[in-house]
């Protein structure tokens, strides 16, 4: 009986923690971190405000967990896609798949890309705990492509940073930034993906 009670209590704790994180993600994306009091998070999650502080010391700790876990998800999924590429030149399909995933997770994108920028220490934490590790894996991936003669010889760390940088910039859009839709000259998704892939693989100089 005690085992069943313990199991039930652990499930309730996990459920409450998940409710807090889910509610915070939605509210931070809609109203911003500064515009979201913990009382509103509690109301959205269907719990008392005091319950929040049983799981998180403060609102900033909620943001830190959302951002860190969010970046892990975004970049780990990207690396998984890279590892399953049919060959080292099929960058377009990887970017298309990942960008569609990002479009379906606009709240996560807004919080990871925008809200976290207000806290330098959080940016540093994400960089040291997530970005550096992902860069290391991506560097090894591109080193293999260089060793096999698919890519020309250059610093694989530079290649990894350029690739991840292009991917992240492509993730910015009007939905992520909370602005109005782009004008008629905006690139559609396919054109954006083709352009990024072409520039990454072939550069921007005209063929001589």
UniProtKB/TrEMBL annotation:
HTH tetR-type domain span: 14-74
UniProtKB keywords: DNA-binding
GO MF assignments: DNA-binding transcription factor activity; transcription cis-regulatory region binding
Signal peptide: none
A Pfam family recorded for this sequence: TetR_N
Source taxon at top rank: Bacteria
DNA-binding region, residues: 37-56
Official protein name in the record: TetR family transcriptional regulator
Organism ancestry: Bacteria, Bacillati, Cyanobacteriota, Cyanophyceae, Gloeobacterales
